[in-house]
Amino acid sequence: IGSWFYRPQWQRRRLLQSATETRGGVIIFADENGVGDALAERLRDSRVRIVRSGRVFAREDRGFTVPLDDSAAYVELLRLVVQEDGAPESIIHLLNLSPPAADSPRSRLGETMSRAFLSLLHLAQAIGELQLTSPLQLTVVSSTLQWVSRDDTVEAEKALLLGPVRVIPREYPNVRCQSIDVEYPQNDGERDRILTQLVAEI
């Protein structure tokens, strides 16, 4: 019976060091608080595309707006990116990086479903429909998902993102997924530390 159960163990590690130039194209699904924009500036690559949540699919100066619940929009997004930049090497999904919510989980469940589950599901389906087979790193960044210390606030509904993170590599062996949960940055110094870590993970 003792071998039936386990408890996750967490280890702190130093921030990794990396260059700010990327090898291939990068798509950033941006958060609403500027971390995605700051990350794009750090990468210094003309092939960085920023995707924002929007009511309709549209082009912007540096990227696109995408309705998170519209599967066809993800196909069009990837089709245009591949056509103009080639197949991306990295997708950074920041839609679940947000400050701790003040309202009840039930009141925001629909939005969380779109950001944590449907956006990843539609993204994976678009990868399959366009038959993208080159190596692709999908990094899903969240906050308040994992419980590490007693004082942590956890938004359990964000765990919806873990399903796609685990299943996508099984369906598409060329896609490597990782989930990174961070403390939501409260100031510029904390944001800079997170950006340094994300750049190192790409």
Question: How many alpha or pi helices?
Answer: 5
Compute the number of strand runs. 7
- What order do the helices and strands follow? EHEEEHEHEHEH
Proportion of residues in β-strands: 15-25%
Q: Strand order of the main beta sheet, please?
A: 3-4-2-1-5-6-7
The geometry reads as globular
What is Rg? 17 Å
Give the proportion of residues in helices: 25-40%
Structure description:
With 202 residues, this protein is α/β, with parallel strands linked by helices. 34% of the residues lie in helices and 19% in strands. It is built from 5 helices and 7 strands. It has helices at 35-43, 71-85, 109-129, 162-171, 188-201; strands at 26-29, 48-53, 58-59, 63-66, 90-96, 136-143, 175-182. Strands 3-4-2-1-5-6-7 form a 7-stranded mixed β-sheet, sandwiched between helices. Strand 5, helix 3 (109-129) and strand 6 (136-143) form a beta-alpha-beta unit. Helix 1 (35-43) crosses helix 5 (188-201) and helix 2 crosses helix 3. 31% of the residues are buried. The model is unreliable at 15-22 (pLDDT under 50).
